[in-house]
Amino acid sequence: MVKKEFQRKLIYQMSPQEDSTLAALLLRPGPTLALQSARFKEDGEMVEKVGRIYIKTMHDNVIKPEQQEAMIKKWPPSQVHVLDSDHSPFFSAPFSLFGLLLKVAATSAGYK
């Protein structure tokens, strides 16, 4: 979905060069139509068995912070967390992401 020459600048600008190079080799086209036509049930129609969280990525050039805020507002998750990362925190902030996922797992263990 992103041309090869723009991938580093848009997706991996904070990630180590070797990680972004490998990731670019592994990228495949995304399900554009599925993403464009995604619909979520209104409140009360579905009982969530697993709480949804949202991790905002503050330097995301793919999904800008204002777009992330709009998604949070439209489909409010049970928790919102913020990472100082690009679109790919598993490359640009792996230790912060790992710590956050551990925190979420520990605080969500009793969620039903």
Automatic annotation (TrEMBL):
GO biological process: jasmonic acid metabolic process; salicylic acid metabolic process
Organism from which the protein derives: Gossypium lobatum
SUPFAM superfamilies documented for this protein: alpha/beta-Hydrolases
Name the record gives this protein: Uncharacterized protein
Top-level taxon of origin: Eukaryota
GO-annotated molecular function: methyl indole-3-acetate esterase activity; methyl jasmonate esterase activity; methyl salicylate esterase activity
